[in-house]
Amino acid sequence: MIHPSADVQSKTIGEGTRVWQFCVILEGARIGRNCNINAHCFIEGDVSIGDNSTIKSGVYLWDGTVIEDSVFVGPNATFTNDRYPRSKQYPDRFPVTTVKRGASIGAGAVILPGLTIGEHALIGAGAVVTRDVPARALVVGNPGRIVRYLDTKNSD
Description:
Layout (H helix, E strand, L loop, with lengths): L6 E2 L3 E2 L4 E2 L4 E2 L4 E2 L4 E2 L4 E2 L3 E3 L4 E2 L4 E2 L3 E3 L4 E2 L4 E2 L17 E3 L4 E2 L4 E2 L4 E2 L4 E2 L4 E2 L7 E4 L4 E5 L7
Parallel strand pairs: 1-4, 2-5, 3-6, 4-7, 5-8, 6-9, 7-10, 8-11, 9-12, 11-14, 12-15, 13-16, 14-17, 15-18, 16-19, 18-20
Antiparallel strand pairs: 20-21
């Protein structure tokens, strides 16, 4: 289901995926099956989203972002893709930011460019992630820090 007010230019939207109001998805973006792309999201062309992922309202995914299967991205989480942004000056290639399978990113979290968020990691609301996050780590704060690791039995 693609809402009539969404601007979807990509031809690669998986079966069962829902795209809600006022989303913009640029040509070349790849979105898997059974995803939920909530209202007011922007997805650039060099973005990949795996199956069964949820992208909540107000999330912008910039070139170089890879979201694997079964990922949750909370409302207004912020991804960046340029380490040294300048107006009208673009790098030849953006660093790749990867969110691994089963990870969750809380509302308003900030993910700096070129990082990897490990499988089943949990990023707390409002955290500012400045370095790679290992699998099953719980990260909170600014700057983000690991406060513990999640139980392997309760994270799927």
